[in-house]
Structures are given as structure tokens and as C-alpha cells.
Queue: 2 jobs
Job 1
Amino acid sequence: MGTFKAIRIDKAEKGIAAALTQFDEAELMEGDVTVAVEWSTLNYKDGLAVTGKAPVVRRFPMIAGIDFAGTVERSSHPQWKAGDKVICTGWGLGETHLGAYAEKARVRGDWLVRLPEGISAREAMAIGTAGFTAMLAVLALEKQGVSPKSGPVVVTGAAGGVGSVATAILAKLGYHVIASTGRMSETPYLTSLGAAEVIDRNELSGPGKPLAKERWAGGVDSVGSRTLANLLSMTRYGGAIAACGLAAGMDLPASVAPFILRGVCLLGIDSVMCPVSPRQAAWERLARDLDRSKLAEITHEIGLSQVLETGPKILAGEVRGRIVVKIV
């Protein structure tokens, strides 16, 4: 037992205090697998946690970071042994369980997914929770019967982490992707990912009608609120929208009209408590369906010491694509 580097969050007189410090391994929480963490990532939720802008952290002290990739050091779990390469996302990491911005993590073996063959630990975190969520959304649309032949699909928050990966995956699968963004200057970036059209988010953020002109067969939404309501009102008969985010708010000022007059489906996407079997299936599909060269283009690397200064930037919408965090 010893100490290791970690980003520790403590409760302060006003809000929280986050700092890169030494953490005692003896203070790690219960779990049957100890992992040497090599890579993590910076998601929107991580930005909320390290800045204290929302009550993401539920216990103190907390090690921030909601996902990691690394190598098993010790295990009493029958499925895992020392040397195994693993991924862990969600399950309360960085919220209720000590998280990923650390050189070591101790978790339940049931939370882990084996690193797919052909994907490096760095690439897995370039995908991270954001990319994993995007893949779950794509799988949900497919299960609902939305295919490239159904018509165009829309992706909101397209220049962000979830949106970038969703755009790249859907484009590779042959969909006509309409990318919605608040940064029209990112049009070249989005078209490079495969977007066929780029629209300004203002087209979708205002008060909407119960039913509007049909524009798409499906979509992936990470924004919520009025944007999601407008997406639903513009979805073609029998289409579906996969909702996985709330960047604009948790409310949904919509009507039942799209559901009962057009048979539209709203598909809820949860990546935190998602069971292991669909997790593994999603990661296998990511290994197959995500263009690795596109992934490299949308990825920016920082060190553990840069997480605290980068957190506010992701909340301000100043981050494009994915950020990987090199732990060691």
C-alpha cells in the first residue's frame, strides 16, 4: 500500500474544492479488482464535477472522473486476472464511488468490460462515456427500425463529444446525417466527420409547434428541453429520437401529438447503469463501426494536471470532439 496521484474533491465552505494531490491507497473503496489506470477522458459530467457547477459528487472526499481504461493489478473476481486490459464507465464512478482521475482505482469486477481487440486503452478513452453513449443511441435507433433507407437522421450538439462520435458512426453506416450545432464555424469539422448537412441550433431551440414539417426519420439528442421537443415535432411518421443528454435543461416542453398522430418514439439512453451484456455489445460495435482515423481527428490529449483548467471550457462549449486524459 502507498500513495498515488489523484484529483481529489472535498466539500468546502462554499461549494467544493478540487486539487491534484496524493491519495492513500488504503482509502480506496471496496471492490474485488484493483486497476492501474492509464487513460481517462473529460466528459461534460466531469466538467460539472470538478467545477461544482452541479451536484454531481454525492460523497466526500471523491476522486473525480467517470471512466477509465487500464490494466488489472489484483483481482479476486473470477472473470479477471492481473494483466487483463479493461474499461470501466459509469456505475457511479466520480459520483458515489472513487473515480478515474487517479493512478489506481478499485471497483467491482462486474462493472468492467474487456478492452476489445484492436482498440488501445487511449482509443477506448477517446471514445469514453460520450462515444459509448452515442453507440447505445445508434443501437436503439436500429432496434426501432431506423435505417439509412428510412431517411435523414439529425444529431444535436454535433461538435461535442457525443455528437461527434454519433455523427461519425452514423455517416459510416450510410445515414444522411444532419448535424446541428451552435458553432457554425465548425462546419468543415462536421463535414469531415461525414455530416451531409449542417444546421444552426437556433433552428431547433425556439418555442415549437405540437407538429411541424417532417424533416428526419430519427435522431440523437444530447441537448434536451426545447431542442428535443422540436426534434420530436419534426420527426417523420414511425421515426424515433434517442435522447441521451440535457445540456439545455431537463424539461421537455412538448405535446403528445408526435406520439399519437405520427407514431414517433422517444428512446431513453442511459449509459451509467447499463447492464454488462449491452455494454460489451456496444464496445464491439464501436471497434467495428467507428472509423479510427476519424476518432484520431476528433481527439485532443491533456495530462492529469490539466483537467482542472479544462473542466470549465467543456461547460462553456469551447471544446470540440473528445479529450483524453493521460494518467501516467
Job 2
Amino acid sequence: MNFSSFASAYSAFLWATFAIALVMGAVANKTNFCTMGAVSDLVNIGDKGRLRAWLLAIALAILGVTIMQAAGQASFDSTFPPYRASSLIWFENVLGGFMFGIGMTLGSGCGNKTLVRAGGGNIKSVMVFAIIALIAYFMVNPFPGTDKTLYSELFLGWIKVFAVQLPVTQDVGALISRENPATARLWAGIIVASAVLIYVLKSADFRKSFDNVLGGLVVGLAVIAGWYISSGIFTVTADGEKYTILSYVQNWAFLTDRPGKPIEATMNLQSYTFINPMGQALGYASSGFAKSLLSFGVVTVAGIVLGSFLWSLISKSFRIEWFASFSDFVNHFIGGILMGFGGVLGLGCTIGQGITGVSTLALGSILTLVSIVFGSALTMKVQYYLLDEQGFLRAVRLGLADMKLMPKPKAA
């Protein structure tokens, strides 16, 4: 899509991002698309319907990225967040994913589900949203009057020693073939996406579930669309030169003869994720809604909440929901904290890393996804055994035994 001015190009970029998020929020509410729910269904009742919806979204997103990079539409080596960075922060991926998995279980949903529930009138999710936003913002932005962030104070001094510097980018294709990563990426994408699709679609029950199919389709296509609009909107200058939004901002002074830049937000290639954008939304609001901070992430948050709200009105499902008890409040409070820290450390949530990041076949994204699922599943197991009046450590051991990760402890 070509535009004659940067203002019109950027406006189209924001509106397209918002419109897709609006649809995604409405569909997620209507279909109950929920990644935490997918893990819960699998762990507690053995149902794989929502898990297959999640996997369908992943497969579609992988296919979309595979086609886009093969066609030369975009390069995914410099995205935001940097999914394919050559520095593999594996410990942050694992720790952040594990924390996020615990947090989303305690907080009744991942980042996307938190926004969807908030749009449907759930006050508990509004509180979780606020906690995530506050932590995510100060994990990457300094406290007022200082140069210190939560990340620099709590993690930087010790966690970076675990990073591994790779000779190539960390995606599967580049790791398989340093000499010809383009071909390896093509075949890796086709093979992985096809295998996942076969697993998903072989279930007759899943194919008959309209909501699960719709949810997976819309979320997967939304991630592809996010990648497309952040790479396929151009400003065409009077002399015929084409600039992406990022390259135009980088050349702002040269192209406009005006100092400064109109956008402070990162404009690298990106698609849908929710933890960092919650922090961006807080920064945007606290700045007095400065136009320079209006970004992909900010309009994503607004679109998801509004889309869910509109569907809840159409379906007459909007209702105010408060905490059932003090322990319910504590669980959601702790869940929000863990999701805020974990989502930033792991570079994303169940959609930001679990679908958007995995669509690039980045090793760190895969590690984060596995760690999220493990953290969530183990938390559910522990909660179950605590209800059975088991001690915490014994509940953990029983949970790990159920997951075939250690021998079952002897009866107390």
C-alpha cells in the first residue's frame, strides 16, 4: 500500500492495526479463544479442542511468515521484539515463560485474555491489566529522575551471563544451514506448519467445532496481517522513492528538513503481542496522550478491549465481575505481577511469543512457549493437590509425577 505522505501512511498503519485487533478481540470473546484455557482443558479434562485452536493459529502464522520471506515481502531478522537475535537469551526465555505460565493461571488468563475479559466487564482483569502495564513499563523505562529500570535493578547484573552468542540468527532455518538459510527457512516453515496442521485437522471433533476453528483462523490470520501491514505500507516521495514507516522515520531530517522525529515508538517489523504494549499504553496515557507515542502496541490494546466490549454488548454477555474472595484477589494480584515480569523477560506472552514469535521459528520463542505451558500446567496440578490438603512441596512433587517428570512420592 502506497501513500503520498508519511502522515497518511502512518494513519493507515494505525487504523489497520486497530481494525484487526478489534476483530480479534470480538472473535476471542465470542469463541472463548484462550491459551490458558487450552492448557486447563488438556490438564484437567483431557480435552484438546482449544489447544488445537491455538495450534491452528500457530501453523497459519508460520505459513504466513514462510511465504512472506520467500516472496521477499519482509526480512524477519530485525523484528520488534528481536525474536531472531543472534544472542540467545535462553535463561530469560525459560524463566520468563515459566513465570508467565504461573501468572496467567493465577490471573485467569494470558495477556490477550486479560484484555478480552476487561472489555467484557471483568474488574479482576482490569486490575491485572493495570499491574502488568505498570511492571512492563518500568521494566524497560527508567524510574522518574533516574536511569534505573526494574530490569536493570533486578535482573541485568546476573541474568545476562546466561546468554549464548550464536554465529547466526537463532531461527531454525539459519541454524540448519548457514550457507543457504533462505532455502532452509522455506522448507522448515513448510514442514513444521504442515505437521501441525495435520495434527490439528485430523480431529473430526475439532473440525466440527465452529468456535474453535474460527478462533484459530482469526488469531493466526491476524498475526500474519500484523506482519504484513508493518512491512507493506510505504510513503512514496515526489521523486518516486519508496520508504517503509521505519525507514522514513530513520531518514526524517533528510526527507523533511525538520529536526526531531514524529514517532518515539519502535517501528521495526512487528505483529501482535500484549505485555509490552500494555506498558506502552500506560506510557501513552501518562504522557497526556502524546501523538509521538501512539504506536502499534497502543492501538492493539485499545482494539482488543473495544472489540471484546462490543461483542459482549451484541451477545448480551457484558457483566461486571468482582473478586469472589480475598484469596481470589491475592491470586490475581500475584498473577499480574508474574505476567508483567515474565512477559518482558521472555519477550512475550502466549500470543506474542507462542504465536507471533514462533511464526519466525525462533529458538527462544519455542523455549518460551514450552516454558509457559509447563508453568501453567504445573500450577494447575499444584492447585488441585492443595485442594486435597496436600502440603505445598508435596503438591509440587505430585504435580511433577503426574507430568512424568519424577517418580510419584510415597503416600503420606
